[in-house]
Write a structure and sequence with these properties.
43% of the residues lie in helices and 14% in strands. With 290 residues, it is α/β, with parallel strands linked by helices. The protein has 2 domains: 8-103 and 209-287, Vaccinia Virus protein VP39 (Rossmann fold, 3-Layer(aba) Sandwich); 106-207, Putative methyltransferase TM0872, insert domain (DNA polymerase, domain 1). Helix 7 (140-151) crosses helix 8 and helix 8 packs across helix 9 (175-185). The longest helix is centred in the C-terminal third of the chain and has 16 residues, at 237-252. The N and C termini lie far apart (42 Å). Bound molecules: S-adenosylmethionine (SAM).
Length: 290
Amino acid sequence: MHHAPVMPLEVSQCLVNNPNGLYVDCTFGDGGHTSYLLSNFKNIKIVSFDWDEDVSKKFFKEENLNDRVTFIRENFKNIKESLLKINISKVDGILADLGVSLKQLSNLERGFSFNSNVLDMRMDNRIKLTAKEIVNSYSSEDLADIFYTYGEEYKSRQIAKAIVSRRKTMVINTAVELQKIIYAVKRTGSKKNPATKVFQALRIFINDELENLKTLLFDTPKLLNAGGRIAIISFHSLEDRIVKNNFRHNSNCKTYKIITKKIITPSKKEMKNNYKSRSAKMRIAEKINV
Ligand SMILES: C[S@@+](CC[C@H](N)C(=O)[O-])C[C@H]1O[C@@H](n2cnc3c(N)ncnc32)[C@H](O)[C@@H]1O
């Protein structure tokens, strides 16, 4: 079964301007958006990126879908060079649905979930640094900086100190152990797990997520045909701010027309059926003929 993609209808309605066009899905993940778009637009083709080794286009059982997808295992920040290698210099639309996939999140060997018995959090196993290495070797100041900068965690210093103090007596080996240390410092009455922001921060830092996004956004205007669109689905304010500022800048330079004057969010029904979608925000811009 394909993973339920976030806002599939909204993505397809807003992204596909050319029913015979070539599109890029920067974040193939569980294949949800790629398969939805291919199934609904019979004449489009898609180049799909994902840097996770476990992800593969063999995911599609339907042969006709596979025929219209080219899969590239690469960081989407290298989109321009990767497309050039297969002789593509222009496309009709680019989609990025940021963050981790359901498959990554639910695999306890990957370390993204609070219940993991490892501390890893690399989306691409070619990345050298793991969460275990950071948590067990970085100074208290550096840990606090990471938690504050990438998680906007207001108790970053106390949590960092608690980690450094705990590792004097034991190596912190698992996400479960890390979560317990955070919980002792930060008990909230809210439904949200108190470790959410620290886990987000570690993941963003390890995978260099904000820089990858900035590079993708920088290269996109050169890659889009006139009338082509970029759609970015983000899940937290750090990402959304980068997208908003990039679109605004390109709009001021008369490179983009901003399509989403008002940000697009999932319907109430979708949020109820797909819990992960609740914080999704989509922004879309269109390349102007220059
Ligand atoms: C939220 S999931 C995408 C889910 C997908 N849209 C679907 O409907 O199944 C994000 C995916 O993007 C991948 N990803 C994140 N950052 C990436 C990057 N810089 N380069 C390539 N893939 C990336 C992750 O490995 C993950 O599989």
